[in-house]
């Protein structure tokens, strides 16, 4: 027990949560020599495979994990969401998350929480002990909750994220070096604040693992050029987890989890291009224009050959019947919901079933089905914020990464610089807490209520879509 804990009194129970974005359970279990510390944690407490959420994208996963609630309650469905009653899109930030975060419940209970580098938390909160917002934060200065935090980050050369652009180079040397530098600085800052010993909940996320997986997982899966560098990165990450574990006292439990799994990427699949070729999606040239966030994404690949080409959701025509947003979210262009909806409400179910049938027939260049599972929106999302929920979500078969450009001249199937993709199954959860039981049906929603139980924080359990994994006495 630390000095500050003694002075505060109350419960001695504390938790350190370390997020390892995108780390698959199978990778850890197949390499005990690389993940010595995670295996030791499992031997002391528990460890196992868990499921992600629908859709398994970090922008939706981390709000789900940190609230214990589905996107219908958090209001965040992916990296890009659609405005209600509009074709305008936006990139969700922390301020878009409608559900209560785990650390806010801890703070409301009179305890303290240090929160570092969690995706989709910008701008940082001034209501909790200290915070550094993560992925999508514009700068270290703006990500810091106060000047003391900012000075600490600057002292350690902290970066919000690894430089993913370097991963696009054929020579991955600079990318790998940058990934290690980012990991080292993150660990330095985590150790610094763990040693402060003034928190009840320490919640920090390593996101660099997701970046490494996107650009090197294929090398690992096929014993390619950078297979050893891939595993060496994970040796360092596991060692960092071990160093933090050694700093914890007997009253502090360690929880380590990923938000989704990963697998080898073989083909990128442009669903909007497929919808266009299959007659589901058409564009109105008169509506073409700048196009918001979709336009930003398209502009990055634009060769300047056609200024009137459609580049956003706002460019779809009135007679379009369906469109897609990443990852694998499909929407009918529904009358009364979309501004220029072409699908009558009375035809909703029949048209959706027709789209499902077409998706089930979609095959890749290798003859395999692209869609492993097709989930109806109402089966995945429930809550007060379902007005922008997709009508369908495709969980792809391994190897097919679902994209959604607008007006793209690419083929439906293509190959890019990434060779790793997110996977719904095969996320992981490890904890030193021997009272935790990780069964066959555990998912991200179970983590928040579990941590609250470990902290002995009273909260309304009916708000969660998951259950505590702490065994009842």
From TrEMBL:
Organism of derivation: Halopenitus salinus
Q: Where does the record place the region Disordered?
A: 286-313
Could you tell me which InterPro entries the record lists for this protein?
Alkaline_phosphatase_core_sf, Phosphodiest/P_Trfase
Concerning Pfam families, the annotation shows: Phosphodiest
- What is the name attached to this protein's record? Alkaline phosphatase family protein
According to the UniProt entry, which residue ranges have a biased composition of type Acidic residues?
300-313
Taxonomy of origin reads: Archaea, Methanobacteriati, Methanobacteriota, Stenosarchaea group, Halobacteria
* Source species, domain of life: Archaea
């Amino acid at each position: 027990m630390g000095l500050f804990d003694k002075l505060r009194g109350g419960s001695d129970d504390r938790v350190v949560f370390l997020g390892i974005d995108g780390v698959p359970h199978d990778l850890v279990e197949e390499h005990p020599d690389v993940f010595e510390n995670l295996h030791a944690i499992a031997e002391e407490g528990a460890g196992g495979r868990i499921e992600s959420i629908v859709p398994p994208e970090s922008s939706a996963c981390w709000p789900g994990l940190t609230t214990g609630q589905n996107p219908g309650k958090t209001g965040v469905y992916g990296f890009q969401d659609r405005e209600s009653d509009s074709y305008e899109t936006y990139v969700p930030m922390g301020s878009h998350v409608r559900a209560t975060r785990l650390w806010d419940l801890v703070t409301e209970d009179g305890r303290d929480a240090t929160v570092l580098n969690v995706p989709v938390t910008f701008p940082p909160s001034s209501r909790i002990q200290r915070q550094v917002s993560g992925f999508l934060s514009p700068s270290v200065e703006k990500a810091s909750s106060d000047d003391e935090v900012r000075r600490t980050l600057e002292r350690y050369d902290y970066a919000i994220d690894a430089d993913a652009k370097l991963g696009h180079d054929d020579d991955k040397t600079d990318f790998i070096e940058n990934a290690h530098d980012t990991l080292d600085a993150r660990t330095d800052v985590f150790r610094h604040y763990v040693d402060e010993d003034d928190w009840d909940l320490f919640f920090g996320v390593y996101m660099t693992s997701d970046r490494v997986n996107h650009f090197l997982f294929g090398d690992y899966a096929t014993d390619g050029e950078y297979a050893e560098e891939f595993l060496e990165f994970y040796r360092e990450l596991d060692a960092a987890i071990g160093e933090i574990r050694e700093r914890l006292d007997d009253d502090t439990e360690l929880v380590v989890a990923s938000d989704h799994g990963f697998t080898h990427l073989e083909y990128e699949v442009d669903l909007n291009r497929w919808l266009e070729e299959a007659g589901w999606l058409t564009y109105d040239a008169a509506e073409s224009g700048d196009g918001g966030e979709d336009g930003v994404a398209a502009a990055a690949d634009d060769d300047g050959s056609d200024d009137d080409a459609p580049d956003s959701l706002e460019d779809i025509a009135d007679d379009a019947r369906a469109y897609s947003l990443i990852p694998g979210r499909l929407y009918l262009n529904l009358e009364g919901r979309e501004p220029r909806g072409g699908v009558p409400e009375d035809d909703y179910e029949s048209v959706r079933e027709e789209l499902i049938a077409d998706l089930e027939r979609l095959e890749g260049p290798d003859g395999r089905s692209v869609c492993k599972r097709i989930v109806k929106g109402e089966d995945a999302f429930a809550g007060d914020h379902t007005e922008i929920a997709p009508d369908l979500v495709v969980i792809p078969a391994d190897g097919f990464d679902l994209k959604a450009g607008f007006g793209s001249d690419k083929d439906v199937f293509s190959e890019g610089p990434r060779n790793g993709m997110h996977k719904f199954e095969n996320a992981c959860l490890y904890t030193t807490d021997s009272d935790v039981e990780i069964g066959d049906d555990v998912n991200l929603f179970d983590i928040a209520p579990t941590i609250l139980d470990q902290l002995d924080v009273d909260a309304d359990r009916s708000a969660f879509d998951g259950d505590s994994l702490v065994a009842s006495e």
